[in-house]
């Protein structure tokens, strides 16, 4: 985690206001994308998303390389390499719209963003953030349903904003429509399972935060809790209705973290 410390997203990791700011940013970004989509400004959305993906890839690769070689004499050279690799991955993503390329880049994005915010927030602030976003996810999927609309719009861009788990090795993103897949009731007719990238990013924040500010064991406990939450999320996988993932996943990592802390306090 050390290479990321110089690019923290918040100066004061203890401020609860950080969680509020985070939620406001997410809501604002969602509204902007929905408005642009409503007025058919897809090229603007695509350009913004591509730039954001490139920038995140650059941050991830740059921090990774500098973690091995931190000498100032070669740092400029490493920055240049990071830019070239980020451009290469972005071009590959643009030209070859394969589900495995989308998932590969998506995982890099999720780990990077989750790490950046994880090192920038202490666990208690991370927990508040996860609770707020779990509530927001529930409302946006089951009440306002605008998150479903957003997912329908984003899948058409074939970008790593949604992770794709296909049922068939010959699965093609070009022929895939999220709305059509969701309307298929029979298990055999559904082509793929779609998971929002946020369902990976948000739980990762607490996992990283607990490792940085508390220790490895609570972080492992959070991971185990997240896996259990994922199990409950996917147990009714044949149901074609959209599900809010964060209540399950965030709840899992929070409980895993707190239970592990409790057990450690008893043992010590």
Automatic annotation (TrEMBL):
GO terms for cellular component: endomembrane system; membrane. GO terms for molecular function: aspartic endopeptidase activity, intramembrane cleaving. It is a multi-pass membrane protein. The chain crosses the membrane at residues 20-37, 44-70, 76-94, 99-116, 122-139, 192-210, 216-234, 246-267. InterPro entries: Preselin/SPP, SPP. It holds the Pfam family SPP. It is found in: Endomembrane system. Its main location: membrane. The keyword Membrane applies. Keywords: Membrane, Transmembrane, Transmembrane helix. SMART domains: PSN. Coiled coil: none annotated. This is Presenilin. It comes from Methanoliparum thermophilum. The lineage of its organism: Archaea, Methanobacteriati, Methanobacteriota, Candidatus Methanoliparia, Candidatus Methanoliparales.
């Amino acid at each position: 985690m050390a290479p990321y410390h110089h690019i923290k997203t918040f100066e004061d990791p203890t401020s609860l206001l950080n969680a509020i700011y985070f939620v406001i940013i997410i809501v604002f970004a969602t509204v902007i994308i929905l408005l642009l989509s409503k007025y058919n400004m897809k090229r603007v959305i695509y350009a913004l998303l591509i730039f954001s993906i490139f920038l995140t890839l650059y941050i991830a690769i740059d921090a990774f390389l500098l973690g091995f070689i931190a000498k100032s004499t070669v740092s400029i050279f490493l920055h240049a390499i990071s830019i070239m690799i980020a451009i290469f991955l972005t071009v590959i993503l643009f030209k070859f719209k394969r589900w495995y390329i989308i998932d590969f880049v998506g995982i890099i994005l999720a780990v990077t963003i989750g790490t950046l915010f994880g090192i920038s927030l202490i666990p208690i602030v991370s927990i508040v953030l996860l609770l707020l976003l779990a509530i927001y996810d529930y409302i946006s999927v089951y009440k306002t349903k605008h998150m479903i609309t957003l997912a329908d719009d984003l899948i058409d861009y074939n970008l790593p904003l949604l992770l794709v788990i296909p049922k068939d090795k010959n699965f093609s993103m070009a022929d895939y429509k999220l709305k059509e897949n969701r309307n298929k009731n029979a298990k055999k007719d559904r082509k793929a399972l779609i998971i929002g990238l946020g369902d990976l990013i948000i739980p990762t924040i607490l996992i990283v935060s607990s490792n940085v500010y508390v220790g490895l064991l609570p972080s492992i406990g959070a991971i185990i809790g997240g896996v259990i939450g994922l199990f409950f999320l996917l147990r009714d996988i044949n149901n074609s209705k959209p599900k809010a993932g964060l209540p399950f996943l965030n709840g899992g990592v929070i409980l895993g973290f707190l239970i592990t802390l409790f057990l450690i306090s008893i043992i010590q």
